[in-house]
Write a structure and sequence with these properties.
Elements: H1 18-23, H2 41-45, E1 53-55, H3 58-67, E2 71-76, H4 81-91, H5 94-103, E3 105-110, H6 115-128, E4 137-141, E5 147-151, H7 156-172, H8 174-191, H9 203-215, H10 236-249, H11 252-267, E6 281-282, E7 290-291, E8 294-295, H12 296-313, H13 316-332, E9 343-344, E10 347-348, E11 351-352, H14 360-367, H15 369-378, E12 388-389, E13 394-395, H16 407-413, H17 418-436, E14 444-445, E15 448-449, H18 450-466, H19 470-486, E16 495-499, E17 502-506, H20 509-526, H21 529-545, H22 579-594, H23 597-609, H24 611-616, H25 622-632, E18 636-642, H26 647-657, E19 664-670, H27 673-681, E20 696-701, E21 704-705, H28 712-719
Parallel strand pairs: 1-3, 2-3, 18-19
Antiparallel strand pairs: 2-4, 4-5, 6-7, 8-9, 9-14, 10-11, 12-13, 15-16, 16-17, 18-20, 20-21
Helix pairs in contact: 7-8, 10-11, 10-12, 10-25, 12-13, 12-18, 14-15, 16-17, 18-19, 18-20, 19-20, 20-21, 20-22, 22-23, 22-25, 26-28
């Protein structure tokens, strides 16, 4: 984990100013390559490499064809540790650059900007490497984009050997490579067809639970690779699915797996105990040693899981975790316009994690003897260091702050009130955070992605609902309004990326699906009808441009988008849930909110399009299984009608919003013109209204409503 670069405190060559860029030739000139004209921070990191990089596009492949060269494709992202290592070892090396420039056309891709390219070639990489893949991804292919070799990170010697072998085959036995590329492409196209089946029943939910129960780490919580249970990823949508299993079956085991795992993540070194927010994953079984990068989507999904755990259990510790994540995101990851940046790097000064770790003496120096010893004892910060380098088993002298007991348990040990303990620790944490801010910060990938912003909009909206906290709803609205204003073209189509005043790149399924999720949650948090209108507009574009008319489900790319060697459809819910999964669940909720059954029909067809895959390996599809759970539940539409801002209205809204009920949707029909407009848009709420100025709750099922109630206690009975 602590790999040092050749230059320990290396600094990249500064990039030219915008005025200087405007004067450069198309190939970047002698100091730069073509990536100098790009917006992606990842591509710009490589703009001064001696490797003559091209961005992905027709021009690069035309050059490969004209020069009769194979293509070397390198895919990564700005905060990827091993991408940095490979850049420093190989792509900055003059010997490597000369060989690659002479023998290949070299293309760089930011996987976050072009997930469709990443998805295709990751499938190839995993297929050629026994299911293993990762970044940097290294692929060799023809000018027709047909791959014949794929791997990940290679040290310089290995990379040169492999590229040398490929170049020799290209020159002496090209038919072998072309036959291989044709076979791989054919297999890839075959794999891209979804395995349709029947609409899964509740038995598939039980099958997924059985898998989670079998693979749960009873000692340290969470799930991981057997038999060592490492590494461990957050997997927040797994826990959201388990909460729904608990809600449906009453399984205490399901609830325990959720609460123990979320608690273990919050206490461990994977969580930033000083600055808040979660690192990418834990490299060990005990959640101690993280991969230190911080991704926006992890923050959003883990916040959602903690919010739902708080709603389900009433345990305030889960609320605290979600709110701490929001503190981090709103403090460090928010653009002044309201939207959110992508990620923060694992590395600073050429070393992974250096920004985040502490020496025991440094903590005492900042906090003083008494508070320093108290903090280091509770956060397990030791004079000799508290972790071991996995690759060498060498003990480090630095410390990763972490807790071994909950705050409640520590308060009992210290004979303190829990609130007093938290306050004392937070005072020390704040001082350490201020000291840490003086360090050299990891790189921040400050591009704004539509899909990841959709996730954070959903998380903040859910926080606003569950905690009755208007500030979170307001921040979700700011981000949504930014995306809807800045990341759409003049035809209403979404764009992928915004950075440095420039919006561009075609949007993909995940951009529409994640924003649909965010807008549906934001409507339920704000009750602004415009967000329902925007959600319906995005759904229309999904149906028109991404829908597979022959087999059902959604393609990753639009019908009028870039054509790759295969048009993918993905449903696997990995670190990020698939666009098909999110679309299915969001469309089901949109159907219940609007009364438009066409949305539910499309959601069912989407689930059926992947029915065989889901039934065969249920636990790999935890987000789309939430849609299956929603379909088989007794879903309810809850309408609150009353005067906007009135105290009785606010009380009833808080009552229906803050309960954990994943099978409900909520509408608010305000007295007056706004409510009349909602009634015109959604006919089944047209007749719902307050009575003699008193707010009322209508609990409906399949759009048929019971007698409304105004009395809080009677409403509680209805909600049960």
């Amino acid at each position: 984990m602590s790999v040092l670069y050749a230059e320990e405190a290396r600094k990249r060559k500064p990039l030219p100013s915008a005025d200087e860029v405007a004067t450069l030739p198309k190939d970047g000139g002698p100091k730069y390559n073509r990536l100098v004209f790009e917006k992606s921070p990842y591509l710009l990191q490589h703009a001064a490499n001696p490797v003559d990089w091209w961005p992905w596009g027709e021009a690069a492949f035309a050059a490969a064809k004209a020069q009769d060269k194979p293509v070397f494709l390198s895919i990564g992202y700005a905060t990827c540790h091993w991408c940095h290592v490979m850049e420093h070892e190989s792509f900055e090396d003059a010997e490597v650059a000369k060989f690659m420039n002479d023998k290949f056309i070299c293309i760089k891709v930011d996987r976050e900007e072009m997930p469709h390219v990443d998805q295709v070639y990751m499938t190839v990489t995993q297929g050629m490497n026994n299911g293993q893949g990762g970044w940097p991804m290294s692929v060799a292919m023809t000018a027709e984009q047909k791959p014949f070799f794929a791997g990940t990170y290679f040290p310089k010697a290995g990379f040169m050997q492999i590229m040398g072998n490929i170049e020799k085959l290209w020159a002496d036995d090209r038919k072998k490579l072309l036959d291989s590329s044709a076979g791989i492409t054919q297999q890839l196209q075959s794999m891209a067809r979804s395995a349709a089946g029947d609409l899964p029943g509740v038995e598939v939910l039980d099958k997924a639970f059985a898998y989670f129960e079998e693979t749960f780490d009873d000692d340290f919580a969470g799930f991981g690779g057997q038999p060592r249970f490492a590494p461990k990823f957050p997997g927040p949508h797994d826990y959201s699915l388990l909460l729904r299993h608990w809600k449906r079956t009453g399984s205490q085991k399901a609830l325990d797996m959720v609460t123990r795992s979320l608690t273990a993540m919050r206490l461990g070194g994977m969580y930033d105990q000083v600055g808040f927010g979660t690192h990418r994953y834990a490299t060990d079984r005990e959640w101690l040693v993280p991969h230190f990068e911080k991704m926006l989507y992890d923050q959003a999904l883990l916040a959602i899981a903690n919010i739902e755990a708080y709603q389900a259990t009433g345990d305030a510790s889960f609320r605290s975790t979600a709110e701490e994540i929001f503190i981090y995101v709103l403090r460090d990851m928010q653009d002044p316009g309201g939207a959110f940046y992508c990620a923060e790097d694992a590395d600073s000064e050429g070393e992974e994690g250096k920004f985040y770790v502490w020496e025991h003496a440094d903590v005492l120096k900042v906090l003083g003897e008494e508070e320093g010893l108290f903090f280091t004892r509770l956060l397990n910060i030791l004079p000799g260091g508290n972790w071991v380098e996995e690759s060498s088993r060498e003990e480090m002298k630095t410390n990763i702050p972490h807790l071994k007991k909950t705050f409640a348990e520590l308060a009992k040990d210290e004979t303190l009130d829990e609130a007093a303990l938290r306050k004392r620790l937070d005072l020390s944490r704040t001082k350490l955070f201020a000291e840490r801010e003086k360090r050299i910060h990891p790189l921040k990938d400050d591009k704004i992605l539509t899909d990841w912003n959709g996730l954070m909009i959903a998380a903040l909206a859910k926080g606003g609902i569950a905690f009755n906290e208007p500030r979170y709803t307001k921040e979700a609205q700011r981000a949504a309004d930014f995306v809807l204003a800045k990341l759409r073209n003049d035809k209403g189509r979404l764009l992928k990326r915004y950075r440095d005043g420039d919006a561009g790149l075609e949007a993909f399924l995940e951009d529409y699906a994640y924003m649909l999720w965010g807008l549906v949650d934001l409507y339920e948090a704000s009750f602004e009808p415009k967000y329902l209108v925007e959600a319906k507009a995005l759904a229309r574009i999904l149906f028109e441009h991404y829908w597979d008319k022959e087999h059902g489900g959604f393609f990753t790319t639009a019908d009028d988008g870039e054509k790759l060697i295969v048009r993918n459809k993905e449903v696997y819910d990995g670190a990020q849930p698939s666009g098909n999964s999110v679309a299915a669940l969001s469309l089901l909720r949109l159907a219940r909110l609007t009364g438009e059954t066409s949305y539910e029909a499309k959601a069912k067809e989407t689930i059926k399009a992947f029915g065989s895959q889901i039934s065969e390996r249920a636990a790999g599809y935890s987000l789309i299984l939430q849609a299956v759970d929603f379909l088989h539940a007794s879903t309810r539409e809850i309408v609150v009608a009353g005067k906007s801002g009135a105290e009785d209205t606010k009380q009833l809204l808080a009552l229906v919003q803050q309960r954990f009920d994943p099978h409900k949707v909520i509408l608010f029909k305000a007295d007056g013109d706004q409510g009349d407009q909602l009634g015109k848009a959604i006919p089944y709420v047209a007749e719902h209204s307050s009575l003699d100025g008193k707010a009322r709750v209508f609990v409906c099922q399949n759009f048929a409503c019971q007698q409304p109630e105004s009395d809080i206690e009677k409403v509680k009975v209805l909600l049960k």
